[in-house]
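Please produce the structure of this protein holding zinc ion.
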Amino acid sequence: MPACQPEIFIILIAAMLGACMGSFLNAAAYRSVRNLKWWGSARSKCDNCGRILTPLELIPVFSFIFIKIFHNGRCKSCGAEISARYLFTEILCAAGSALLAYKFNFNLKLLALSLTGFYGAFISSLTDYETGDVFDLFALITGVLGLIIRLSVSLNFLYDGLLGAAVGWAVFAFIILITRGGMGWGDAVFMAGMGAVLGLKFILIAIYLGFMLGGLSAVILLLLKKVKFGRGDTLPLVPYLSAGCFITLLFGEYILEFFNIYIYIK
Ligand SMILES: [Zn+2]
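Below is the modeled complex.
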């Protein structure tokens, strides 16, 4: 189907929203793992010298490029190098949002639902990657928003979200109980939130894909001798589960179709 004007418009809006959300979620994750307040009066500061950033330094993607060109990628006050983490997360979030907008273009409710899941997965991936902390609050916000959007579609769609949340939680609770703490409860709560967004069948696919990706990476990292398991090195799981969720959001129905499982939305 050739792209028509309104389609491109929605994708562009989503990409811009994604860049802003990437910037916001990055700051929220950064502050959460350091026990800093991330709402209200807290202002964005230079990580090194603590100088409060000017509005011009807070524009997603563009500020980083601007600082790179005119200040050699360094803080104006202390000269500390600005981490590429900001640019990377903003671009990743923008690209993911644009892809979801491309897929759910003509169904704004499904687009809102998928973006809610994407941003929820994004922030929890950042905190888990950095310190291994997975915050229940982020999963809760994701889940509640997901259920509200589902309710706005239909009651059956809401039930599917509730089932997805219950199963997402139960699968991980089961693993935690049989492995006696091989995984954190944060992972279970995270998957409950994602289950509320994805629904029953999609959360099962996402869990499967997440474990496949995580397992594959663990094997590769072991082969490269980057990590030694069993001596305290643990692989953060949430980024892999998130990747599973994202792939499912984009391709879930094709995967179900491949296995001849049919889904009923609405
Ligand atoms: Zn500085």
